Amino acid sequence: MKKKNVWSIMIPLIIVAVFTQCHNDDDDGTSTTYSSTSCDSETGVARVVCLAEAFKATLSSSQVATLQLDYTFSNAKTWSNLPAAMSARNGIKLGSLNSTQLTAAKALIEEMTGTTANEGWDEVQQVWLADDYLYANGGGSDYGSGNYYLAFLGTPSTSGTFEILETGHHKTVANTYVDGVLVGATPHFEAVEPVSFTSGSTTYAPISQERDAFVALLASFSSSELSSAKSSSTFTDLVLVPGKEWQFPSTSSGLQCNGLTSEQKELVLNVIKTYTNDIDDNDAAAFLETYTSELDNTYILYSGTTSMNTKNDYFRIDGPHVWIEFVVAGGVVFPSGIHFHSIWRDRSTDYAGTKS
């Protein structure tokens, strides 16, 4: 099922070019006036930093203290595939923000994510909508877009190291910047339950482009290629789930891409693009360039059926850098159904290489 653009039904997100002067009452009873801020002239990481500072300018001092933490591996690895009520997150809860603050937060998250239809920022919003659907259809208050968090690890700047972490139940965006360059964009987690749903008059299917790309690639394989790519193991979840940091297998398994045709290699790249396109466009191109250069040493592995729509179906891309997993898991809020879990990691640049 084709995913639809979410802009038509969500509250329109306006990238705030100028934050007019405003007064926020701090918890200590004082009132702070924030100067007008424009990010229009900025590009790249400088624009991310500008929007981060603009968001901070809408917050009280106590909110800033909640938002901005030290850049440590302990803080960076605090994310999960579980709802935040079941597995605590760092940072500030989106549901605690007023409309001005939330608009500023969304402007920042949009800048960090890609513009490709149904990927990047589109996908973030669709996953949030899916959580709202769970909230409204039996999941209860543990679910919902308000239960996502935003954290700054380190101080956003074009010098030094900082991470911006957006995390909640089924979406984690973890961008780490060093001296004005995006050095790490992973772990990047995405999932959805149910796999398609209707909100308003529109039907959504987040993560379906990923699934469709896997299916197209597997359909291009000969019987011998499928045999080489197929694992005899059964996968009930991802191998490198939250908590399995830096536990990449020492050897790669499956079908090596060096023997594929040029058309098949393009299908592999189409799969990878559904992940790299989740980050801002320029950085997506840089990561894709690295992964393309290493394609001959990249492996494809799957388990279960080639439909990638049956419980315990599993797909993996494993290269010198790139690591992508997708699994069809059983339903949680809807036990008779299924839901998708997927992750993009990088063997070298997860957490920008930070390991302790």
Automatic annotation (TrEMBL):
Pfam families: DUF3500
Keywords: Signal
Entry annotated with the keyword Transmembrane helix: no
Keyword Ribosomal protein appears in the UniProt entry: no
InterPro entries per record: DUF3500
Region forming the signal peptide: 1-24
PANTHER family xrefs: DUF3500 DOMAIN-CONTAINING PROTEIN
UniProt-recorded name of the protein: DUF3500 domain-containing protein
Species, as recorded: Ohtaekwangia kribbensis
Lineage of producing organism: Bacteria, Pseudomonadati, Bacteroidota, Cytophagia, Cytophagales
